[in-house]
Amino acid sequence: MVSCLAIFTRLALKFVPGSEHDLEHQGDYSNERFTASGNLVDLDDAIDAFQTGLQIIPQHIDLPRWLSKLGIALWNRSERTGTRLQNLAASFGSRFKHTGDLADLDESIAFRQWSVRVTPEGHKDLQKRLFTLGAYLQLRSQRLGNLKDIEEAIAIQKKLVLLTPEEHPDMPMMLTYLSSYFHVHFGITENLDYLAQAIALRQRALLLTPEGHLDLPIRLNCLGSSFQTRYDSTRNLADLAEAITLHEKSLLLTPEGDVKLRERLNYLSSPLQIRFQDLGNLDDLSKAMALRQKALQLTPEGHSDLPIILTALGTSFGDRFHREGNLEDLAEAISLLERALVLTPQGHETQPLVLTALGSCYHFRFERSEDLAELRDIPGIGESGEEVEDGLGRAILLLQGAVELTIAGDAFLASRLYLLSTFLYSRVTQTNDPDDIEACFSTFERAALCEHGPPRVRLDAAVDWARLLQRFFPSSSDTLKTFNTAVGLIEVTAGLKQTVQLRYTHLQNISWLPLEAAAAACALERPDKALEWLDQGRCLVWGQLTNLRTPLDDLRSHDPALAQVVIQVSTQLDRAGSSRMESTLGMELPEKIALGAEARNHLNLAQRWGDLLNEVRAILGFEAFLKPLSCSTLLRRLPDTGVVVVINMTAARCDAIALLPGNDQPRHIPLPTFTLAKCNQYKHILDCRVTLGLPRERGGVHDSPPVDKSSERAFGPARRNRKEHGVRGVLRCLWGELVKPILEALKISKTSASVLPRIWWCPTGSLSFLPIHAAGIYGENDSDCLIDYAVSSYIPTVAALIDRVKASRSINKVVSGIFLTSQPHPSGASPIPGTTQEVRSIHSMATKNGVRVEALEGDAVTIDKCLESMEAYSIIHLACHASQNATDPLESRFLFHSGSLRLGRIIQQSLRNADLAFLSACQTSTGQEKLSDEAVHLAAGMLAAGYRRVVATMWAIGDTHAPAVARDFYQYLWSHGREEGGGGCDGKDSAYALHYAAQQLRLRLDDSEQSLLAWI
């Protein structure tokens, strides 16, 4: 009877339009029938009735009630269609995740937005409707990558947070939801500022959550996941350690038998596995595997989480096989992942992850195909030779499936494409099939050019793409395109959003790239591109600092207000980038929040800086503002005299690129007889001789007195007839294989002229550690050495030299002068009494020459006083110990009685009137071997701080030789300053002054190994 009544009512409404009351009654009646019977036809009738009624009363006072009823009906219909196989799941999100049906969700969102619009402020249901709308928008944004949805959700949730009192018990929940929305935004845009805001919100929610609260473990996991996500982008190990700590705390709060235990075991296993993958600590992997095995034991058959847990554990076994090579681990990995693939629904968001992991394991199996007999004996890994050998084909098919299921814009797309391209390359090495080669090219290219994804993955893809081109098409100009992409990604990998310390960490593993790119360009006879890439990709951090401190005279003339904003932001970003990274382990949460606020400010500044660059570059005439300089620009801005010689050194080849004033093209000089193997050998010989023949620091026990050789020149007969090894042999080889061919190509000959030509050397890689300036044949009869041909200087990049030329100006008389300090008895280091004599002697000379001078010794100089003096005097002379820190370059320092002057502190200075720094200390121009092309040493730090010229040492300097060298240096500098009508306190002749001082020391010594080391 009731069914018949329902049918007649439905027919009546279809043919006879009713009033709004009739329609509402029909809608309510149909909803009640649906609740009782679960029949979707009744629910459809309810929705039809409410939608029809809404068309009748568009501005009715009861409109919110109607919209609410329609929204509930749509929700119920979405519930039922999304979970026919699962008995009405409690959460719309979980149902939607399983069905992927967007129709009801779209309609529900539209009407809830309408409901919110017509609900007056202060209405009791407004917050609830806003909250639900935000959750729906987040779900749709996650599925479709829709930025508009998540931005609307963020705006809604921000409003709800503002409406919630700080002490309200719901505030942590509100903050957590808002943080989740920021997370989704970061996933779409990869803007680290949104992730930083998510972390800050989750820290605040955690701070408001009392001990013992049921949600405390959940919020610990949320915050831990945020730190892990940030690690994926920044590779800052402190973030990964923080993630592990938070997940451990959450797990400790979860008792055995808790329904969330399985989930929290998985949370902790993930960062442990990642840390193993990055650092190789097997203990991390063992812990991760134990956690995942326990999670698997707690997961019943048929549970929706089972495929995820199987995939995680299978990945762990695969990683252990890759580390230890146990084929049983590989068999277990494949078994687990095959099972996970069967259990994962087609089109599920985790399917690409399973396909990728399984494909990697089949590729492992292919790589071990030489162990065919052993493989056949492992259960589950292959029954026949064909099956084992076809692992590569299976791996490729699986990865192709993963790529097809990964939407454009997904952060994992670049990684999956890169992995697929390496699998394809494996097949290319087997077949040389043109189709495989073409597929490999296109896949590497897609990975390299992905807009999203880890910059390092895209960079690696670009490099492999270029190397593949070099292998199959060595003359192809496309190689230039690929390396151009790769070099451009270096700055993305180590950009301004990171601290200087973290940038150096990233650059350690990619410093070879500009050199390899330049070698490829030289092979194609494109020295112009080689020059540009070397200047763009080397000394990156110093270049970034220089850009932040570039004078803006032209921009100020065009737009003073914009120039002022650029100056303010660049100054703030400079300071933020030079700050120290601090570990948050052991910190209280309020301290962590404060540190996080600093990090967010740094990210905001970096984003603002990028926006400002775009704004300036949009102005006519400023299109190239702070962009890497082109070859033509570098040539146009060279000094008027002298030659710049850039030497690129790789395993494949060695080339010099010479830049001469007035020439519009660089000169390419191949150096076929000089190789990287020889370079490393010469460096090793010198390192051994320095260790044996010189003190490790100034004032050491091997310091020797000067030798008077007035009756004969410096090269006595002692070793003249012996076969030359050691230092003399290295210098001879550098001369014959490297320097002499360059001089001959440039037609620079030995001259008796009083003023020798100038050469600025710009070596790369291991060559940076060799004394090119001293190359030559040393002996009484056949002496022939560079020091008799030219005056040598070193530059980190050509752009650095041009910056000094651009900044060349007369010294302000207010700061013209020299500040001297000696530190003869620094704490924790050997005494260097010669520094006292050195400084007193220079002070006396300065006074006689009318030079403004201040000299302070020992305890009289604090770190702050030294920094103040660097601003007050155009020249600074530091006679002290120095210490290079290979692990953390910014911790390299000068040692004073009252503390240490760190390189990190020095580069925070911006000295507008700094002219010359004389570093009379040991190894002040010796960089870190892993960062040889970043010039991470104290001399470069002084250049970064603003000094136009720096005198520094490659290794230890004797405490008896140093004062004499310094005296000769200043004697030349000040005497020539007077001759030219200046005040004698200008460092423009410092290269010639150093050349003179070195010659004088050379004349006072013999030709022993130790003597050569002393003056070169």
UniProtKB/TrEMBL annotation:
Coiled coil: none annotated. Residues 697-719 are annotated as: Disordered. Residues 697-712 have a biased composition (Basic and acidic residues). Residues 730-1002 form the CHAT domain. It comes from the Eukaryota. This is CHAT domain-containing protein. It comes from Ephemerocybe angulata.
